[in-house]
Amino acid sequence: MLRLEHVTKRYGAFTAVDDLSLSLAPGRILGFVGPNGAGKTTTMKMICGLVRPTTGRIHVGGHDIARSPLRAKAQMGYVPDRPHLHGRLTALEQMYFVGGLYGLEPNLVETRSRSLLELFGLAAKIHHLVETYSHGMKQRLVMASVLLHAPKLLVVDEPMVGLDPMGARLLKDVLRAQAAEGMAVLLSTHTLDVADEVCDEIAVIHHGHLIAHGSPQSLRKRAGIEGARLETVFLQLTEEADSSAAR
Questions:
Q1: Same domain, 18 and 128
Q2: Is the pTM of this model over 0.85?
Q3: How far from chain centre, in Å, is Cα 134?
Q4: Which of 83, 78, 98 is nearest to 186 (CA)?
Q5: Residue 136: CB partners within 8 Å, gap ≥ 6?
Q6: 156 has which bridge partners?
Q7: pLDDT at res. 247
Q8: Sign of the torsion angle spanned by Cα atoms 163, 236, 80, 174
């Protein structure tokens, strides 16, 4: 569903992402983890067509994001780390606004909107202005709106920020359910316990380089610390990468 081929992004003399190749199949959840400044958000913006790679190619559902951007973007949903909502719209109006962007029929928008808003616990506030929502409610509304057009690829950057435990549990359950129905999910998170719990595979990026990719258990085996928390594995892998780079 998603394929990156030797993707590099440079800003002048600085290389944010360096020769990154990665793939994600339908029905899989890939945790994309790395320290601050590792290149995660830049990579996700390139996948979504917001930033052009310096070199390399990105395919979404078989469509090159540079050559067929509309076809590629029609198959994906993107939740940035700081999503924007129109505060003077109601939740239902926000859903209609998003539905219009994707050219969805009004009857379909109405049906799916009410179903998704109920799923995310917002049915009682469907006609309330978004500006009256708490941060956690806005996060849930963003997720509902992103799922409205039933994307085949979901790209999510730090979705757990600001969610209470109940909201976080709901989101994890929704991501698993969507993957079970065939959606591919790319999930960037600093909460490694969440990645360990939810993700089928983990990709670790450090200084723009992909330094590890595999199931949580395979990464533990590679680090030689089976049974350890993923946080411990992550720290060891990044420290090893730093040591190798310093030699």
A1: no
A2: yes
A3: 22
A4: 78
A5: 162, 163, 164, 167
A6: 79, 187
A7: 60
A8: negative
User: For residue 105, what are its two tokens?
Assistant: 């029929």
Same domain as 96, residue 33: no
How many Cβ atoms are within 10 Å of 183's Cβ, its own excluded?
21
Collapsing DSSP to helix, strand or coil, 90 comes out as strand
Is the pLDDT at 244 greater than 80? The verdict is: no
Q: What is the pLDDT of residues 151-162, one digit of tens each?
A: 999 999 988 877
Question: What domain range includes position 241?
Answer: 2-75+153-246
Closest CA to 109 of 86, 92, 128, 90: 92
Report the C-alpha gap between 69 and 109 in whole angstroms.
Answer: 23
Indicate the pairing of strand 201-206 with strand 184-188.
unpaired
In this structure, are 140 and 179 located in the same domain? Answer: no
Is 141 in the same domain as 92? yes
Residue 158, sorted as left (phi over 0), alpha (psi -120 to 50) or beta, turns out to be left
Sheet-wide strand order for 29-33:
76-79, 153-157, 184-188, 29-33, 201-206, 209-214
Distance of alpha carbon 214 from alpha carbon 99, whole angstroms: 36
What is the number of structural domains in the chain? 2
Query: Are 52 and 6 within one domain?
Result: yes
Element housing 194 (H / E): helix 192-198
Find where tokens 């129905």 sit.
Answer: 181
Amino acid (1-letter code) at residue 174: V
pLDDT in tens, 43-89: 999 999 999 999 999 999 999 999 999 999 999 999 988 888 999 99
Position of tokens 């998170």?
189
